[in-house]
Specification:
This protein is α/β, with parallel strands linked by helices. The protein contains 13 helices and eleven strands.
């Protein structure tokens, strides 16, 4: 008998149209989950009616709406397995997810967290293999055991340059998840809300990656992550928080500050292109080392002009 018992936690909010497909992928495992826990975060649609069809095969928890962080933590608190796996309510797990992760974790009991590669998909089909979009240096100088890699030196710093680690398909030792305090509810509604927890996992635990896609992440209009400006603003907020609170952020301070600068430049450019001059001006004020190219200087000049002059010049710049 395996000592690895994986409890799947699915946080859910108004996903009546999609949650059944997610649950079906969880039930279709070649080796079953120890349990499947769906945490309904105060849905106002037909989510509960859909969940009622699975009442004999899943556990359901209903909360007042409090955010995905609190929902994930509630699922963890209710879980009875040795490990916690996560899957968002619009995503899917491959049929061998439990079999593959369990077999590997049994031979690597000191691993605290395992993040799995995934493929994105939409109504037209598969879009990309996430890990294949990583820069080549991301996977340099790591130890491999089949499709799994671990002992990834400076992973915190690597994530400052590229971030492929998502909640869907992640597996954590429950005692580790509890020890680091789970997700932080203060980031409710913040773009890239899971990044703070991911960085804390890397800061405190021993992390492995599965390079074979064991999950599918859905891209659709209902994704909160479909708004790039919101995501970048959230990443900036979280990295600023990490600089104050994470031990690893202090060790990699230069990398974090460099990542913040890149993201602020990205946010400024995005805000300018949308004509959001309040965000553009606020972001400029936080940039100490400004790019010295002509286009950036032109955008900065327009941003700082009075409204009556700024708007017509901005329109010309967008032609």
């Amino acid at each position: 008998m395996s000592t690895i018992r994986i409890s799947l936690v699915i946080p859910c909010y108004n996903r009546g149209e999609l949650i059944a497909e997610t649950i079906e992928s969880a039930l279709a495992q070649t080796i079953p989950f120890h349990e499947i826990i769906v945490v309904d975060d105060g849905s106002t649609d037909n989510t509960q009616a859909v969940l009622s069809r699975y009442r004999d095969r899943i556990r359901s928890i209903v909360l007042e709406n409090g955010g995905v962080q609190r929902a994930r933590n509630a699922g963890d608190a209710a879980a009875r397995g040795s490990h916690i796996a996560l899957c968002d309510s619009d995503d899917l797990l491959e049929a061998d997810f439990v079999a593959s992760t369990t077999a590997w974790l049994e031979t690597h009991p000191d691993i605290d967290a395992l993040y799995c590669n995934f493929r994105t998909f939409d109504e037209q089909g598969i879009q990309l293999d996430k890990f294949k979009t990583a820069p080549p240096e991301f996977f340099m100088d790591v130890r491999y055991d089949g499709a799994f890699c671990f002992d990834i030196e400076d992973l915190y710093a690597r994530l400052m340059r590229y971030q492929p680690l998502f909640p869907t398909g992640a597996v954590f030792r429950k005692t580790f998840f509890d020890a680091i305090g789970g997700y932080d509810p203060r980031f409710k509604g913040v773009g890239s809300e899971d990044l703070e927890f991911t960085l804390r996992v890397i800061d405190k635990g021993r992390v492995a990656l599965c390079t074979r896609p064991l999950a599918r992440v859905r891209k659709h209009d209902g994704n909160i992550s479909a708004t790039p400006m919101r995501q970048v603003k959230g990443e900036i907020e979280i990295l600023e928080f990490a600089l104050q609170r994470h031990d690893a952020a202090q060790r990699y301070r230069d990398e974090v500050r460099s990542s913040l600068r890149r993201r602020r430049i990205d946010l400024f450019n995005a805000a300018f292109s949308h004509g959001d001059f309040d965000v553009a001006a606020s972001t400029l004020s936080r940039l100490d080392d400004l790019p010295d190219d002509r286009k950036f200087r032109m955008k900065k000049l327009i941003t700082n002009l009075p409204e009556l002059v700024r708007t017509p010049l901005w329109r010309v710049s967008q032609m």
